[in-house]
Amino acid sequence: MPEIDLNTVASNVIWTTFAVTVLLGIVLQKTRFCTMGAVTDLMVMGEWTRMRQWLLAIGVAMIGVGLMGYLGVIDPGKSIYTGARLTWLSTIVGGVMFGFGMVLASGCGSKTLIRIGAGNLKSLVVFLTLALSSYMTLKGVFGVLRVNTVDSVALTLSTSQDLPSVLAAQWGIAKNSLQLGLALVLGSALMTFALARKDFWNFNNLLAGFGVGGAIVAIWWISGSLGYVAEDPNTLEEVFVATNSGRMESLTYVAPYAYVIEWLTFFSDTSKKITLGIISVFGLVIGSLIYSLVTKTFHWESFRNAEDTGNHLIGGMLMGIGGVTAMGCTIGQGLTGISTLAINSFIAFAAFVVGAALAMKYLQWRLLPPPCEPVIAGNNSTYHSNTGGCGMPLQIACHTDQFGTLGQIGPEDVAEIARQGYKSIINNRPDGEGGPTQPLSAEVEVAAKALGLNYVYLPVISGQITLEQAQEMARLLQTLPGPVLAFCRSGARSTNLYMLAQQVS
Length: 505
Prior knowledge:
This protein is an alpha/beta fold.
């Protein structure tokens, strides 16, 4: 048997992983693949595009892992997701926490890295918060709490918890055959659903689904085949080289945050080695940075106000604690884990969606403040009720000192809006929606421009906000002089559009 150089194997694993994740970072930045966005798009807009991207990626990953398992290229049963303990309570609690946190933080662990590469300073703060809280949940005070509470509630199965192992024990069928059969059936079903609509068939959507799913498969191969040594010359035991867990790994973006901070902090300690998880973090950031620079979309972005800062800090903390507790993020459990057909991963997927839905309800509530009005005076803002030109109160909802929403206005109200310090108006209500008594957009525009205000007509049908409209709203909020006032029939539509704009920017 030829002598194995573990350092060479580790180097091959690290550099191959780096290459794959740099390409993945480019793909994620270009296609806007985002698991949080998939949930919010579906909930608020009824838009399935990004959810179909996610499901397509799962299907591709499932089939890829099933084929490799059947052919003996890797053994999915040796992954970190397929232990005999079904920690269902940890998965539910952690998954809901992570799902809630990713909405507050405007993106999951992978999206945070992509945003950092594009110049988003908010995401850098999220990274640091997530890294610290995940480390504390792995090895610190939160870890003690986790082990003594939710982790203690579990089902211990007679087999590993992946569906092929469970069903093989029940039916007496070879596990690798079941692995392939279930992967083909479930994966094909997901891919068929994702590709069912012809309007989904464009380059970016297909690149997102096949690219992300393919990256998961590639990293499984790197870890489980390229980095697999059947007999470590030092211990005479099998080893998966350059992994933090000592088992086969693929992409996940919670625990690797902690490992990055630990590696950087103890850099001079030669026992601390760069691992697959650590290099995958750097790979995503660099891939996103390359794409942003080449396409000239790189721009610095910071917090809007104190509440925005607080949301991102709390969101990062919830993702760190929740991701470790659930043993993975929306990429780790929601793609990588599911590709092994692990039962816990399916539970985690549902918990992520529930957590995100709860966070969306919370933000919708938070973005409907009591009627008020900002009076801009230098850097200070005060609030009081105001009255329009016709003597009726303008029920302005002040989300920040730079953005407010309002119900339907007429040309006679524009002077009061200008007096209150607003520099731009966005009309989100289609002409004619309220019948002949509804003021026309052109009439309001004339009044606005006569007073030197910027005016944009961005009509949105109630209950039918599109991703393109959310993107345009995000662009307007970044480019229009503030403060900005958006209005529709009641203000609710503008509020929802504003909330979505925070997620897609």
